[in-house]
Specification:
Blueprint lengths: L7 H11 L2 H5 L4 E3 L12 E3 L1 H8 L4 E8 L5 E5 L11 H13 L6 E6 L3 E2 L2 E2 L3 E4 L8 H13 L4 E2 L3 E4 L32 E9 L2 E7 L12 E6 L6 E6 L2 E7 L6 E7 L3 H15 L8 E3 L6 E7 L3 H11 L2 H16 L5 H16 L4 E2 L11 E2 L1 H12 L9 E3 L15 E9 L2 E9 L5 E9 L1 H5 L12 H22 L3
Parallel strand pairs: 7-9, 8-10, 10-17, 13-15
Antiparallel strand pairs: 1-2, 3-4, 3-24, 5-8, 5-18, 6-7, 11-12, 11-16, 14-15, 19-20, 21-22, 22-23, 23-24
Helix pairs in contact: 3-12, 4-7, 4-8, 5-6, 8-9
Length: about 500
Amino acid sequence: MLKYISRRAFISTAISYLGTTAVLAEAPLSSLRPALRGADAPKVVVKSADALVRASQVSGRVAFAVANAKTGARVEGMNGNVSVAPASVTKAVTALYALDVLGANHRFRTRLIATDSIVGGVVQGDLILVGGGDPTLTTDGLAKMAGQLKAAGITEVKGKFLAYDGALPRVKTIDKDQPVQVGYSPAVSGIALNYNRVHFEWRRNSGQYSTTMDARTAKYRPDVAMAKMSIASRSSPVFTYTDKGGADNWSVARGALGSGGARWLPVRKPALYAADVLATMAGAQGIRLKPVKVVNRISAGTALVTHQSAPLREILRDMLKHSTNLTAEMVGMAATVKRRGKVSGLKASATEMNAWTRSALGVQGMRLVDHSGLGAANRMTADAMVGALVKVYGSNALRPILKSIPVRDENRKVIENAAIKIDAKTGTLNFVSGLGGYMTTRDGTVLAFAIFAGDEKIRSRISKADREAPKGGKTYNTRAKKLQQKLIGRWGAVYSS
């Protein structure tokens, strides 16, 4: 368990704070910055939070909470006890969960196992690609494993080529309500490759299109056979997907292609994807593998090659920086598997994490259905998020791996050498924007905060086909982010000594 500070002061101040909510709601439109003292000191007017929210033109509901990170004393809030969509701010909670259960130095292993003896470089039995829940495995990693297989003297596999992804449950897509083609909602299982995305590229020459589907990295671009693309003579939908013939079968509308382009598509069969690429890389080393079969169980054997991920803390730092949904789901489910021995799926794993937030963090108000925040049914209160941030502040578990958020002016330009420092996790969905973490004022005071904005009415009217880039979504997000910056600026002025 992480070592946390006592909750006694936090609870007492939280009760006191919640009792003043009505008073805060009627706060004056402006207040004087307390740090400015003396008869000759200029009086700087700081707009109230209410005034900033009203002026922001952010529709729907705005909720926030702010507390002294060290003492837990709540200093300001609005709708702090109202459940709202947290979006990817959820990943900060997932990071804490994984760190507590798995440990900061945990490494995920991907192995190549031989089920029988090796005679003269020939594996007499089967070769099994065994996934260990590594969300960061890439084509480069599989190429290295193939090279290590050759270095171990392997020239041939007499038996079958198998792939095992049962370390984690198989989930077809993170969120079934997302458009079928979005790369941020791929399948999840005990094997992942390139964040379970395949690169689709198309070019037009003499009126005809050529397409490629590959597992590219900066170093390699192997074509894959398990993901296929056809071009259909239609205007919509732009993409369709069918699971047929042991492959990811895609079609794209000819009218949407233009002269050429590229994008990432989600992989629905991660084990086949990784095995496809490994077979290509092994072939380049002169080791021919038979067509792969995905299995639910593995036989005992000898590990010929073991690929280890970076330590979990590094993985989580990158996850929080780039907001990778797949990483969040895999590390979250890995933590649940360690706690419970097994897990049936994302929702069940999120339910276990919810229980952990109550027992380990001592907070109420987190009702999450996944570990990434992608699902529309995720709910969290600003009070709960701030309570979690206060709880772990003394352990320094989260703050060092949060992303540094730049301070921006009214025109969204970065303010260099700003007096305020922000370390936080962003969260963005259609007509939802969140930010939660820590801010340091000019005098070194650290405040824990959570800001959520969302317009559920507008969200409910967006068709599934339009959810990748709905009209008005970008404008809403920009307004919400401007409001976040102004609220943080207010807190930096008012609560700095």
